[in-house]
Automatic annotation (TrEMBL):
Mode of membrane association: Multi-pass membrane protein
Gene3D superfamilies in the cross-refs: ABC transporter type 1, transmembrane domain, P-loop containing nucleotide triphosphate hydrolases
Native source species: Stomatobaculum longum
CDD domains: ABC_6TM_AarD_CydDC_like
Keyword terms, alphabetized: ATP-binding, Cell membrane, Membrane, Nucleotide-binding, Transmembrane, Transmembrane helix, Transport
GO CC terms, sorted: plasma membrane
Protein name: Thiol reductant ABC exporter, CydD subunit
Predominant location category: membrane
Molecular function GO terms recorded: ABC-type transporter activity; ATP binding; ATP hydrolysis activity; ATPase-coupled lipid transmembrane transporter activity
Localization terms from the record: Cell membrane
Transmembrane segments: 21-42, 54-72, 137-154, 160-180, 248-266, 272-298
Sequence ranges assigned to domain ABC transmembrane type-1 in this UniProt record: 21-301
Length: 581
């Protein structure tokens, strides 16, 4: 019912939970004093008639008492708010720090939708756990004991009867918990699954529309939503039923206590004031436990949500080193490099290759041979490789992520842009870049005149740069990469799916870069790698051939075959274009 790890995690929130218990308890003590006064007043009125001075004395206690209770309630609410606000702040901070520690590889460990749901609604679920449930748990133990302590001198038998009936409520709660645990696990599995599926379908809406598969996807969503509706109804039914049982115990128990007190009064063993005390306070024995019961379901949701949060916080973190790479050129060497995404399926099977400082090296090979995986390892995205990958003699796993990002820049085939100005998107790469530097980078990729015609650096980009053409987007990505100004550049299919003019332009800039930087080029189009110092041809996670273009052509192996096939195809396509023109 109480999760110690949650409490330990959120030490700061603990003090507010203690305040909540204290304010509730003080409010109960004041209530006892008020009830004791009312009971005494009625008894006195019965014996001596209604006297003004007696009423004034009673009001002198009751009115300040009510005011004090009002203040206690306000202070309780304030402490509850502080406890839950702290929880949200602390937990979201922990999740964020964890994402940072997981580094660029975090998306391999958790889906975006689950992460959003967990840090959004998952954390919200804990608000009630800390803001209400936790303090109520302790107060529900404290209140009946306090009442027993006050009422037992008046009538021990009735007070004991009331005290003994209270544990029936936690008993029901525990029975419900047995069912609820499994049910809630399934509920959250379905809930997070629905979120993942919804996000995926939303992101792939264009593809779904192109293949007119949106109707089928909507039907899928309907089915998943229906499953979620059903499990939600099951959870609600379980909660409602247990609430009803708890109500019966709470009000039934209070009624039994009142009947017992009345019987004692009828037999003359209890005074009028005494019986009135029991009538007015009997329900208070049960109400805190009953309220705990209603918070319990929300508390359980919170605890279940925290299971997910803890599972995320416990994810193994890649060992990130602290070594710095220093300034200057970078020399990269891989020796017997191996890697697999899933244990049973090795992707890289002992790659040995060199990228000497300021060299131009290319990786080619059929789709799925492992080229991007190598780029991913170099960029710190794919952690846990075997063999060795050294940068200036320093093992990559020992290099700090920050240092790595300061020395390597990667441009992929689908660079991401944010809905902001061109200036803001460029400044991501170099926050201190001057206007002149940004314009120079745009000029190098032949984009300056276009951007200037659209309002200059203030031109607003739509989400992910969707108001640019594919070629313009890639050229802008290259300009941003140039501003980053690092000793190593990796281009992973940076020219695929773009117009020939943009491709030529980008390759020109890459060739220019090779004069002063270490460049790793991954390309399907072998014409682009001809000028490389060294070309590695990958096959099934191994290096099948290696050498300069001329050497590989002399070897007359797979590289030469592929090169000649592509040249022929391009000549054919060129010929067709000319004849159409
Ligand atoms: N995140 C991942 N999880 C599991 N398997 C993956 C993941 N990324 C890639 N793979 C697998 O690793 C293998 C190599 O993929 P990789 O992207 O490195 O190949 P590639 O040579 O770059 O291919 P392409 O030229 O088509 O981009 C593929 O069989 C792919 O299925």
């Amino acid at each position: 019912m109480i999760k110690m790890r949650l409490i330990r995690l959120l030490k700061g929130a603990g003090q507010y939970v203690v305040y909540q218990i204290l304010w509730q308890w003080l409010s109960l003590l004041v209530q006892i004093v008020i009830v004791w006064n009312i009971a005494g007043l009625i008894e006195d009125a019965g014996k001596q008639g209604i006297r003004t001075e007696r009423i004034l004395v009673a009001l002198g206690i009751i009115i300040p008492g009510l005011l004090l209770r009002f203040v206690c309630d306000r202070l309780y609410t304030a402490a509850s708010f502080r406890a839950s606000a702290d929880v949200k702040r602390i937990l979201r901070g922990r999740i964020y720090q964890k994402i940072l520690r997981l580094g660029p590889s975090y998306r391999e460990q958790i889906g975006s939708a689950e992460l959003v749901q967990m840090s959004g609604e998952g954390v919200e679920q804990l608000e009630t756990y800390f803001g209400r449930y936790l303090s109520q748990f302790f107060y529900a133990l404290l209140a009946p004991l306090t009442l027993f302590f006050v009422l037992s001198p008046i009538d021990l038998r009735t007070a004991t009867l009331l005290l003994l009936a209270v544990p029936l409520i936690p008993l029901v709660i525990m029975l419900v918990m047995l069912v609820a645990k499994r049910l809630l696990s399934r509920y959250f599995d379905i809930y997070y699954g629905l979120g993942d599926s919804f996000l995926e379908k939303l992101q792939g809406m264009t593809t779904l529309k192109i293949y007119q598969a949106d109707r089928a996807a909507a039907d899928d969503m309907d089915r998943e939503s229906e499953r979620f509706r059903k499990i939600t109804m099951k959870v609600l039914t379980m909660q409602l039923n247990s609430t009803s049982v708890m109500d019966i115990i709470a009000y039934g128990g209070a009624a039994v206590g009142i009947v017992s007190a009345l019987a004692r009064f009828a037999s003359g063993e209890l005074s009028l004031a005494g019986v009135l005390m029991f009538i007015l306070l009997a329900a208070e024995f049960f109400l805190p436990m009953r309220i705990l019961g209603s918070f319990f379901h929300i508390g359980m949701n919170g605890m279940k949500a925290s299971d997910r949060i803890f599972a995320f916080l416990d994810l193994p973190e890649p060992e990130v080193g602290k070594a710095e790479l220093g300034t200057g050129n970078i020399d990269i060497r891989m020796e017997a490099l191996s890697f697999s995404y899933e244990e049973s399926r090795p992707i890289l099977k002992g790659i040995t290759l060199e990228l000497p400082a300021q060299s131009f090296v290319s990786l080619v090979g059929v789709s799925g041979s492992g080229k991007s995986t190598i780029a991913g390892i170099l960029m710190g995205r794919n952690r846990g490789y075997g063999g060795s990958l050294r940068l200036n003699g320093e093992e990559l796993s020992r290099v700090s992520t920050e240092s790595l990002m300061n020395h390597l820049t990667m441009v992929g085939h689908d660079s991401r842009f944010f809905r902001a100005s061109v200036r803001e998107n460029l400044l991501l790469a170099k926050p201190e870049a001057t206007e002149l530097e940004m314009k120079e980078a745009l000029r190098k990729v032949n984009l300056l005149s276009f951007i200037e015609a659209q309002g200059g650096l203030e031109m607003q980009l739509a989400s992910n740069g969707s108001n640019l053409s594919g070629g313009q987007k890639q050229r802008l990505a290259l300009a941003r990469a140039l501003l980053h100004d690092t000793p190593v550049y990796i281009f992973d299919e940076a020219t695929s799916n773009i117009d020939a003019e943009s491709e030529e332009m980008i390759m020109k800039v890459i060739h220019e870069l090779t004069k002063s930087r270490t460049v790793l080029l991954i390309s399907h189009r072998l014409a682009n790698v001809v000028g490389s110092d060294n070309i590695y041809m990958l096959k099934d996670g191994k290096i099948a051939e290696a050498g300069s273009h001329a050497e590989l052509m002399r070897q007359a192996g797979a590289y030469r075959r592929l090169f000649e096939e592509q040249s022929q195809l391009e000549r054919f396509a060129g010929g067709r274009r000319d004849s159409h023109a």
